[in-house]
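Order emerges. As here.
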Amino acid sequence: MSQLVRELEILQAKVDDWVKKTVDSNGFLQGISQRVALVHAQRRMATTSAERFPLRRRNFAAIIPGDSVAETVVASSIFNFLNIYNTLLITRLILTWFPSAPEVIANPLSTICDPYLNVFRGIIPPLGSLDLSPILAFLVLNVFTNTASALPAELNAGPSRKLTWRQQVQKRKGQTAVKKVEP
């Protein structure tokens, strides 16, 4: 058992060395590594729960907590999927105007889009040959798309304090004599 532990430690050391060499050779990865190290150092130095978990002290519109790659991937994937589905719905509705639409295109679009549109056809029945249910379908899809675009957004808990241009430059340079201007 102890030999297995030693082999695992040696393997872990080799992997750590490889990761360090890879990060050191790539400027982008160095920046990410430095930011992660800074966040971990700040959390270690934090004394209260609110300081260790900064998301708890603010009101967030985000469903996915944190500022991570996973959050960005999930939020952008949902947003992109809804935009693509919106485009498919528009294409499906335009194809309904043409009685001799190519079945190679119309049938897959019907399979994908009609279940969603049928939900709204049950709410708003067609008026003769005029179907108004896609209007409600697009409104609901628009609400979902806007919600998906706001997933990673955060709400400020207090009033926003604006800095002048000079104060922003001083803050970036690390000068501490910055006074905030109330709006």
Summary: The two ends are 66 Å apart (CA to CA). Residues 118 and 133 are 8 Å apart (CA to CA).
